[in-house]
Design brief:
By secondary structure, this protein is α/β, with parallel strands linked by helices. The chain is built from eight helices and ten strands. It has one domain: Spore Coat Polysaccharide Biosynthesis Protein SpsA, Chain A, CATH 3.90.550.
Length: about 250
């Protein structure tokens, strides 16, 4: 929740060897109807042209995080932000043109909102001027409701208030073998009584090829169950059902 004051938005993009997709991600940000206040790309020891591509966009600040992994990278980016809203997307995320505008509108309209998320369509299944291919993000959110009875945040398309992040940062898990970082954040927000909203019109595109490999799919499911077990042991999640609203 943000007190009545001007909303500002920083976008953090963790990136490791993302030269094939990062340009499209940043071009989409450049075309926003309302520009973000800050864009931070966290180069996480890339051996390709990731950092150079990021630096070629004048509105981007590039920082380097030597500790390998998505958790270390997004933490480094979050620490550098200067806005009261922090967006976290992936390097292959391509926002719809009104994404930033819609984020600001949602937080202005819903004063008690602590975090926000939305769907993603898969490039490989998308067509011009249409928005199909949401099957993977819909499955993720449905799985979250099934396992947790809660609205989860999705790392490819999420925003959290700076004030809420500061409350949970020290409690977030640093071990990527134990948790999915976006689920970890979601459960901590709920544990503190925070509000996460799903906006079905806050749309992005993603690359879906990463979801197809059977080993990756199996690993993803095992890890989301491990995330649940981790939070049950910590006492930051108790199995229960809550009413989930979509806006």
């Amino acid at each position: 929740m943000i007190a009545d004051k001007t909303l500002t938005l920083s976008i953090v993009i963790p990136a490791y060897n993302e030269e094939a997709v990062l340009g499209a991600c940043l071009h989409a940000i450049a075309k926003q109807t309302v520009p973000p206040d800050e864009v931070i790309v966290v180069d996480n020891n890339s051996s390709d042209a990731t950092a150079a591509i990021a630096a070629s966009f004048p509105f981007v600040t590039v920082i380097h995080e030597p500790a390998q992994g998505i958790i270390a990278a997004h933490h480094a980016g979050f620490r550098k932000t200067s806005s009261n809203l922090i967006a976290r997307i992936d390097a292959d995320t391509v926002m719809s043109k009104t994404w930033v505008e819609r984020v600001l509108s949602d937080f202005k309209t819903h004063k008690k909102l602590d975090a926000l998320t939305g769907p993603g369509a898969v490039y490989e299944l998308a067509f011009e001027d249409l928005y199909p291919g949401e099957i993977f993000s819909k499955y993720y959110f449905a799985l979250g409701r099934r396992l947790f009875g809660l609205q989860l945040l999705w790392g490819s398309n999420m925003v959290i208030t700076k004030s809420m992040w500061e409350k949970i940062e020290q409690d977030t898990c640093q071990n990527e073998r134990l948790v999915h970082d976006d689920v970890d954040i979601s459960l901590l927000v709920h544990h503190l009584g925070g509000t996460i909203m799903y906006d079905r019109y806050l749309k992005v595109y993603i690359h879906g090829i990463r979801f197809i490999a059977p080993k990756k799919v199996a690993h993803y499911h095992r890890k989301i169950v491990k995330t649940r077990e981790y939070h049950i042991k910590r006492g930051t999640y108790t199995p229960r059902h809550r009413r989930i609203k979509a806006y």
